[in-house]
Amino acid sequence: MTFPFRVLLVVAFLAGPAFAAETARPAHPPGAAIASAHALATDAGFEVLAAGGNAFDAAIAVSAVLSVVEPISSGLGGGGFFLLHDAKTGQDVFIDARETSPAAATMDRYLKPDGSFDRDRAVNGPWAAGFPGLPAAFVRLAEAHGRLPLSRSLQPAIRIARDGFEVYGRFARGYQQRREVMERYPGTRAVFLASGEAPKEGDVFRQPDLARTLQLLADKGFDGFYRGEVGEKLVAGVNAEGGQWTLEELASYTVKEREPIRFRYREWDITTAPPPSSGGIALAQMLQILDGWDLARLDESMRVHLVVESMRRAFRDRTFYLGDPDFVKVPQRLLTSRDYAAGLRATINPAKATPSDLLSGEQTPLEDDETTHFSIIDAEGNRVGGTQTVNLLFGSGLVAPGTGVLLNNEMDDFALKPGEPNAFGVMGYDANAPAPGKRMLSSMTPTFMESGDRVVVLGTPGGSRIITMVLLGILGYDAGLQAQAVAALPRYHHQWMPDVIDAETGAFSPAVAQALRDKGHVLELPGDEADGGRGSSHVWGNLQTVEWDLRENVLRGGSDPRNPVGKAAVEAVGAKPR
Q: Is this prediction's pTM over 0.85?
């Protein structure tokens, strides 16, 4: 990476927050801003805005096109979360389109005869998949929040699925990583080997079955996917591979509208994702812990130390207390309270890392690259933050024949065996155990930030790292950075267990890395000799963010430079309120 990530972050924190002069807040933005992980999706959003749609119609277009061009990350066979702000009413709504568990997917189904955990069954094929939620979210967005018919908002996705798009490097590389699993299933081979060979960078990739499925959804709404021809093919495709779906369970899927989590950090009002996302509660804990220090006045190693210690404590609570609120009592009020954060802050030693095994491993009494995100602000001031996923690369690898729908492998996000880490190394217990119709815990964290001078939408993919990437993005905005600089910030992560700081190449200078080790932290840095050359991938995440600068009444977008096919754009398009 050529971008001076670390220097930028240091300068930004030393600069401190920017405070606007007292000026009247503009009534509406000067146009619209969209940032997404693929240029075709961003362009689709603007196409729908130009046709008279609002941010919620544009969200359908962007999400659906991402479902076509990013099967590596998301799709109709997966789910997502959508955080909405209605400018006219001032209301915020969280649409939960998380996948749900089939009744047959009991914990014993994921054990081998000797009682050990069957990782292959948890992440590959029919038993890995929950019932999809994304198509139902499109219907809800169009009927309850949009201005255009669903059929219009889905047109870009239908066209691109039918006519094809150019295969990009991440798509081709991801297929090679998952090729063995993808080619187990005849429905998947029919889509991805339609030309006789695996997709290569530069190929035109067409999905006629998916185009037909999208058209049925456009024409018939919910019933076009969850019942009738498509529903029958989905259930038959799963069961032919040994799964146990039923038509009744598929047709009973419902999206949920939930109250977002809200809290204050310094000059910012934060609105973010509630359970079954773990992200909002974790953000509230981490930021309210950090609110006890003036981070801009601290040297970099101390700042990172405190941020990591806040991450450690939030992820410990995530492990034990969070799950689907329709099935378990989540102590949300306590976990997000400032008093609870103050108590956690008091356990942090500024001079020394807290070993994770010293934080209780028992419940105490208490009342990448997969996934994708987009951010939208329209000319009326409506906002959408959408994060959607099929979980791991290409989900379960299973396409139900005749549908073009690549199914998720979200069942691995349940605690399928208590204390057994999932594919992201995150553990869980009873609160996140599977049950019929239950939604698995998620890290997806679409987020709004509002201050007297700026309005921000941000989010990212990245498994359990989503939460900490959004945290660092919030801290970057608080330090005065603009959207593109926030999208480019270096990343580091701690999730309680394993007890290590994971970081991108270049995130820390040698001096800062050594200072952290001197405090007792264990670092995993790519190619770092001190850690035997272990460590994470070179870079991670795909943060997409937009901001409305109220002082200057300008829009800005930031698309993660780690992803060359992403696009953030601002256009003078869309209807303004009269």
A: yes
